[in-house]
Amino acid sequence: MRIIIEDVLTVTMNDSKDIGIYTIVIDEGKISLLAREPYKVKKIKDDIVIGGKDRIALPGFINGHIHSDITLARGLGDGLTLYEQDNDSFVSRKQWFNRELDREARYYSKLLQYVEAVKGGTAFICDVPFWHHDDDLVEPFKEIGVMGAVVLDFRRNFLTGEVIDKKEYLSSARYIKEHGYIPIVEGPAEEHYEQELLNLIKTWAEELDTLIQMHLAETTWRIDITQKKYGKTPVRYLHDVGFLNSRVIGSHGVYIDREELGILKKTGARIINCPVAEMKISDGIAPVSEFISNNIPLGIGTDGALWNDSADMFAEMKSLMLLQRVSKGAASCDAYSCLHAATRGGARVFGLEKELGSIEPGKRACITLIDYMKPHIVPIYHGSQSNVLQNIVSCARASDVSTVIIDGNIIVEDGALRTINEQKLIRKCQEMGSTKFKNMS
Ligand SMILES: [Zn+2]
């Protein structure tokens, strides 16, 4: 069965940066045709036809860093830095709500976060859970119908630091892979840097032939830890011990100096930046325009509840742009670069550039349609002058997404989720969250 999107203003994100009115044909989960107007497709029985009038088609977003299992704790970390959350606050004393966020609450947290993300146009999520249960690592992805990767913690319990047995770890990773998702090995944050642990992580990633994602140079607090312990910044330390290579994805990457940019470039390491979280918990401003000018693979993530606390990629794109501009001038980061980081850049970070990130024949069909006939977006025009990219990044919102196609399946249609009962989920999460947290002392 084919899906045909007719005459839609399409931002292809291809090499030539083509934007125009196209008809897009999806067949067997892939984009089989992308034809400029006035091309007309000969329709056959069973074709699903979506009219493209008043819509903009974008590649589905790639959200490169989410901690979905704590979504029900939304709002609770507000006003605290990461150091305070981790060391001396309501959050640390409650052990990151370890008791409240039981297995059921974590499962519903994931569903809630994924529904929010998908309804806002996200097709691929890289999730970094704090707690592991094999079934729960892939089932929520399947239930919602989103593509994804799971960053598997090397610790059985992040609160005690106990490292998982290798056999058990690799078996969980293979379980994720068998179900069609990407297992990624979690690397330690700065407070846990030890040569032996880093060697272990590296070996596991090599054995699984996969990537490593680790929080990297996010805060001055963590930079100080490696400076005191090793006399080096995190990036220099990781490089000197031979850990940094093209398998490594650094989350955040806020404190990276000029020499370290050279190290990232030379080693092929990648970055997922989370601008909203980095503003909300006062991390700092990452050298995003330098990542871009140095061609360092760059994607965007929304981080999780306690730090953002939402999963809106439009807000991330706009924040990415504004944070660079407020610190480096109005020309330091353009709308195209922000949309690139949210789509093609993210695909590159996860080694999926041949499959995702742009609307081109042969790629897996992940397409987001925005309804632009809204007071906060119009007018949209594309001719010798175009405001399409600017208005997507500066004006559009997650709630403007009308249709989301993921891997050839229509997951959101006319703004409504097709895979699960959204209202039931919202009601359940509201009840569960308010019961657990309302009177918590
Ligand atoms: Zn994180």
Key features?
single chain; 441 residues; alpha/beta; Urease, subunit C, domain 1; TIM Barrel; 16 helices; 22% strand; binds zinc ion
How is this structure best described in words?
The protein contains 16 helices and 19 strands. It has 441 residues and is α/β, with parallel strands linked by helices. It folds into two domains: 2-60 and 363-417, Urease, subunit C, domain 1, CATH 2.30.40.10; 61-349, Metal-dependent hydrolases (TIM Barrel). The strands form three sheets. Strands 1, 2, 3, 4, 5, 16, 17, 18 and 19 form a nine-stranded mixed beta sheet that branches. It has an eight-stranded parallel beta sheet with strand order 6-7-8-11-12-13-14-15. A two-stranded antiparallel sheet has the order 9-10. Strand 9 (155-157) and strand 10 form a beta hairpin. Helix 3 runs parallel beside helix 4 (134-144) and helix 3 (103-119) packs across helix 16 (422-437). The longest helix is centred in the first third of the chain and has 17 residues, at 103-119. The chain is globular, with a radius of gyration of 21 Å. The model has no long low-confidence stretch (mean pLDDT 96). Bound molecules: zinc ion. Zinc ion is lined by residues 65, 67, 128, 215, 251, 303.
